[in-house]
Design goal:
Blueprint lengths: L6 E6 L6 E6 L7 E3 L1 H5 L7 H23 L6 E13 L2 E14 L5 H14 L18
Antiparallel strand pairs: 1-2, 2-3, 4-5
Helix pairs in contact: 2-3
Amino acid sequence: MKINRKGSASWSGGLKDGKGTISTESGAMNAHPYGFAMRFEGVKGTNPEELIGAAHAGCFTMALSNILGQANLTATKMNTTATVTLEKGDGGFDITAIALKLEAAVPGATQEQFAELAKKAKENCPVSKLMKADITLDAKLV
């Protein structure tokens, strides 16, 4: 099975004075604004790093739900936060870390068992494996 999902971005102007929008195929985000100040200066609004964090938290939590089910366990509640760290280095900006923080209620699970299953989910959710993906580019001037 192969599933394709689309996200898109539009931008006009320079880096600091420009403006952009981000959209998702589903319409969950439709022409949502983003820009330099939102990404680097703490101005309220979205940015690529928080979207990556949301995607990672969602993917990891769903993967853990599946892994718990395989162990005959069901979570009554799971809350995950993914903190994405963007740092400036010598070669420009890099995402240097993603810290997943999970709080969950899983009746019947021991802490040791839960930690092992959560580790498995962290290592195997598709977003965790993202950087191993084959990234292609089709760039055209129009």
